[in-house]
Amino acid sequence: MKTIIGVFALVLLAIILWDAFEVIILPRRLTRRVRLSRVFYRSSWFVWSRVVRLVRASKRRERYLSFYGPLSLVFLIVVWAVGLIVAFGAVLWWASPLPTSFRQSVYMSGTTFITLGLGDVFPHTRAARFVTVVEAGTGFGFLALVISYLPVLYQSFARRESNISLLDARAGSPPAASELLRRYATGHGLADLDPLLREWEIWSAGLLESYISYPPLAYFRSQHDNQSWLAALTTIMDVCAVLIAGIDGLPPWQARLTFAMSRHTVVDLAQIMNAAPRAPVPDRLPLESRERLKEVLAGAGIVLRDPPAFDEKLAQLRRMYEPYVFALSGHLLVSLSGWLRVSNTADNWRTSAWERSSASLPRSLFDDGDDVHT
Description:
- It is a single chain.
- 67% of the residues lie in helices and 0% in strands.
- By secondary structure, the protein is an all-alpha fold.
- The termini are far apart.
């Protein structure tokens, strides 16, 4: 029995150390389905999301969802640490010929792993001393990896959020493709869309690489309830779809590049999170909304290159990415952006809690009919 437990402990050590290596150090996507961190996130998110669904107030629900990303990271580290301590304790118990209790071996393992080293319990054999030295080094290295991992993770989060915040004054809050096109057409001009789409092509590539290297980032919510990385990315793909479907005055080359990178990102992320693509129900752009979209474009001076073929081409492009963004939306409990601007909503930069509570403070430097064109 002691030998069986010792062998099982060695296997557990290998599983935990390899899983930590894959999550923290290995910068590539893993297709293996059976992984400790994968099981942890799937089971914990299943429970957390089911409980949060019972909360009716949307703001409170979003607040509880925002806790999951950071807390899951803390609990994953705790799971790794506890697993390593118990596994090393079992190995020490196996390597000790004296009638030492399993509880005492785990206690010694814990003090060794966290480099406390009280000395009230010590190894008696060469094998036990060797295991103790290995565990002390492992605990020190584990602590160093965790300390270096967290800053890198939050730097990736900050880079992700910067472009999402910049989209606020360009496409509204929440963002909408029609609003972004309207503001650019009536402001700087559609030609300035190419640099913007180029930035989002790079942003999409960075998002994919950061989520492959640091999967927990996908569960980190944005700063505002009406913002999310998925809604922002969907808005950019909507804009690219309109440009590719055909408008006068702007070649679709950059839109095609950004659309390709963005679609690559959502497809791969859906695979990583095991979110199977599903039919986009309800339709984000029914006939009435599609006609309204054309009216908004026409009002901004945007002319469709081939109106009869526009609807068909737009529908084909939407079928390439909407099933995946709907799957991610359902899995992460994130609201998708719409094609049209939500009425009676101000951009996030225009409002604050102080302005809403005080009539003496100006609500905006601009009149309600003005927009910021950047």
